[in-house]
């Protein structure tokens, strides 16, 4: 069996009064992530990790942020498309491990629901999806709650 590793990163601005979709969960918060799609930074990082592992470029290459088809789209749909792109090349996903860097709100209570959404959209087993979070200890743009960052790594196999 051949295995490959992938890495993904994404960042989005937080804006007052904007919806905050993270891992497919609509978080109740005074501000939310802004982007062309639903700006789900966690799912975007996972998409880029998967595409990177398969050497299939990146999320913006396949789903341009100037294309009206993707305006406001659920990133879980883009994730499913990424998994399909990998499947076309014979790849299945081994596991995904992700890290969200966010000052507030607390992510821990929402992790089970996020994993459910990601698993349902992608077909990746729940036990192969790990989601973690950290604050930035009040420092920088994350600390000032101006933005949210996510990192993800994955293994793929065929
Ligand atoms: N948005 C966040 C940030 C952190 N957590 C959880 O809190 C723990 C402590 O965070 P520190 O940044 O103070 O080290 C962290 O390990 C996470 O379990 C969270 O749920 N949501
Ligand atoms: C997801 C896409 C497509 O709508 O747009 P955004 O929501 O702005 O997100 P980004 O992280 O900039 O990734 C690029 C695009 O693929």
From TrEMBL:
Catalytic activity field: 4-CDP-2-C-methyl-D-erythritol 2-phosphate = 2-C-methyl-D-erythritol 2,4-cyclic diphosphate + CMP
Key word Lyase present: yes
Domain of life: Bacteria
Annotated InterPro entries: MECDP_synthase, MECDP_synthase_CS, MECDP_synthase_sf
Organism: Paradesertivirga mongoliensis
GO MF term set: 2-C-methyl-D-erythritol 2,4-cyclodiphosphate synthase activity
Protein name: 2-C-methyl-D-erythritol 2,4-cyclodiphosphate synthase
Family in the record: Belongs to the IspF family.
Subunit record text: Homotrimer.
């Amino acid at each position: 069996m051949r295995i490959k590793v992938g890495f993904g990163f994404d960042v989005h601005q937080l804006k007052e009064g904007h919806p905050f979709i993270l891992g497919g969960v609509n978080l109740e918060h005074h501000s939310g992530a802004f982007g062309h799609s639903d700006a789900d930074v966690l799912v975007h990082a996972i998409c880029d990790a998967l595409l990177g592992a398969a050497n299939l470029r990146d999320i913006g290459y396949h789903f341009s942020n100037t294309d009206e088809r993707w305006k406001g789209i659920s990133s879980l749909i883009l994730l499913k498309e990424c998994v399909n792109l990998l499947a076309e090349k014979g790849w299945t996903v081994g596991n995904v491990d992700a890290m969200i860097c966010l000052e507030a709100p607390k992510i821990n209570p929402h992790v089970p629901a996020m994993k459910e959404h990601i698993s349902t959209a992608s077909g990746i087993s729940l036990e192969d999806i790990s989601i973690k979070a950290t604050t930035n200890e009040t420092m920088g743009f994350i600390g000032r709650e101006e933005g949210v960052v996510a990192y993800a790594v994955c293994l793929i196999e065929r």
